[in-house]
Amino acid sequence: MEPLVQAGCCDRDTERSQKLSSIETTAERALQLCSRIVETEVVALPDAVGRVSAGDTVSLFSLPIHDHSAVDGYALGSSGKGSFRIVGRLTAGETPKDALNKSEAIRIMTGAPVPEGTECVVMQEHASVESGYVSPTFEVPVGDNVRRTGEDVRAFDTLVRAGTRLDARHTALLTASGLQNAGVVRKVRVAVLSTGNELRDTGVGMGPGHIFDTNRPMLRALLSSNRTEITDLGIERDNLEAITATLKNAARTHDLIITSGGVSVGEEDHLKPAVVAAGGSIESWRMAIKPGKPVALGKIGNAVYLGLPGNPLACFVDFLLLGRPIIDGLSGATRRDPLVQNAKAAFEWTRRPGRREFFPCNIVGTSEEGLPLLEKTGRAGSARLLPLIEADGLGVVDADCTDVQPGSHLQFYPFRADMGL
To answer: What's the CA gap between 215 and 234, in Å, rounded?
Structure first.
């Protein structure tokens, strides 16, 4: 799609005549606008959770570092079954002094290094002890209950690939491998702006026709991961010059600028011409979804611009579908698709076809096939917020669907998986 160079009435005619684009096509275009951040930094491992690995990380040691017992029991000098003389005792953190011969055993605790000559370890529950001898109750196989050096990780194995979003699992593995720090991509710098004469922040006096700005706080919450550094640009009135100046200044120091409202074709929708006036380029997209059809993509200098709809549910949906992939693209994170589950309807619904529709819903049971059964939450409407609070996630019906009956196939985006970055 060609960038819009101005935003007059001809642009409104162009937008109305555009063919609706798929989510996938729009998201792909959004990623094409992203240039991966190259600046990196080194942070302590506990502070690296949520960050993106800047490069491959290798292990400094083999894991386990030494052969050790996986259980509390007895290390045996030979496998099989028999009677073994107990010659000592070992706990985790101790070093074995002598090797075991074939007829010997040593009392051993979980994590303790096994002596040289150990062929297996028998669990204490599977052994009988009498007069200083231990006898397994079954034939113990070679290697049983012994964790061998390097069976998990070999020294200089790659532990984490570049582009990995680090979490607590990586913290554990990297620490076990002797590492204290991680090299990560610097945080994505995001500026968030709301526009509209009707908008007010909470705590500010309200007048006739005013409403509280919900989108900016919601977007800041959705962006509040360790991967982002957020600048709140506040609310700008519907004034082309003021919005242009704000966007131009923000583009100098940010990787991504997100606005909400003003991306439709109304006379007071100034964001598109403001992006152009700020020296940027912009593309209008009309996605074949409901809510959230109108979005704007572009660049101002090196900053990616994402213009989201003003209605809260539409803004929420479009951020999950486009905003998060853009964050991934800028940070160099390995691309991930949203977690989508197959589901079935537990309700009736007659609808107008043409757009893929998202709606808040609850899980009210499980189908015979083990799929979640979904019930719509509240009435439809992209400006409604309460259904979001009450819902377990977003249900989705295909664009060509006209009639939903109990048992109809749906898709389900669980909030527990999709709320974060």
So the answer is: 11
Q: Name the region of 407 (left: φ>0; alpha: ψ -120 to 50; beta: rest).
A: left
Token pair for residue 104? Answer: 């010997």
CATH numbers and ranges of domains, the chain: 9-39+187-331 (3.40.980.10), 47-62+152-185 (3.90.105.10), 68-147 (2.170.190.11), 341-418 (2.40.340.10)
pTM for this predicted structure: 0.84
DSSP labels for 287-311? BSEES--EEEEEEETTEEEEEEPSS
Instruction: Per residue of the chain (421 residues), give pLDDT as tens.
Output: 434 433 333 344 444 445 789 889 999 999 999 999 999 999 999 999 999 999 999 999 999 999 999 999 999 999 989 999 999 999 999 999 999 999 999 999 999 999 999 999 999 999 999 999 999 999 999 999 999 999 999 999 999 999 999 999 999 999 999 999 999 999 999 999 999 889 999 877 778 889 899 999 999 999 988 899 999 999 999 899 999 999 999 999 999 999 998 776 554 568 899 999 999 999 988 899 999 889 999 999 999 999 999 888 899 999 999 999 999 999 999 887 778 999 999 999 999 999 999 999 999 999 999 999 999 997 655 567 888 888 999 999 999 999 999 999 999 999 876 544 4
Say if residue 64 is preceded by a cis peptide, omega within 30 of 0. Answer: yes
